[in-house]
Design a protein that fits this description.
By secondary structure, this protein is mainly alpha-helical. Helices cover 74% and strands 0% of the residues. It is built from seven helices and no strands. The longest helix is centred in the middle third of the chain and has 16 residues, at 38-53. The chain is globular, with a radius of gyration of 14 Å.
């Protein structure tokens, strides 16, 4: 359930990078596409809202973990995945960080480039080990 919710959140956060006018109708369409239950929609919505509410803080954390590698140089899919994982690590106390990293790596394998899983894993390992 949470895996599909993360995928839905990834789609919304990815789209936000290119169109800052993401509305409720768009979100509902994505939730329906991923056939989320009420609980799944709640989790996805919490993830998306947390990322949007703490966007700059999360971006700053990603840049710091990448040794000040500017966020605009990070693949947009990888950035969305990192934002989700960073939000989970920082704001979702019920999710162990190792689960957030594992889920993020899985999303990178499924949705991004051949080297993305290693990149995401490395960045998040740096965050956790700080």
């Amino acid at each position: 359930m949470r895996n599909s919710a993360r995928e839905a959140a990834l789609n919304i956060i990815f789209a936000q990078q290119f169109n800052t006018d993401i509305d409720t109708a768009f979100r509902k369409k994505i939730y329906k596409q991923f056939e989320l239950s009420e609980e799944g929609m709640g989790f996805a919505s919490d993830l998306v809202n947390t990322v949007f509410d703490h966007w700059q803080e999360l971006i700053d954390g990603i840049e710091e973990a990448c040794h000040h590698y500017r966020e605009n140089r990070i693949n947009p899919t990888d950035k969305a995945i990192l934002l989700i994982a960073m939000a989970e690590i920082k704001y979702f106390e019920d999710i162990p960080p190792v689960v957030s990293v594992s889920e993020a790596v899985g999303l990178a394998r499924k949705y991004s480039t051949d080297t993305s899983a290693d990149f995401v894993n490395g960045v998040l390992a740096g965050v956790i080990n700080r």
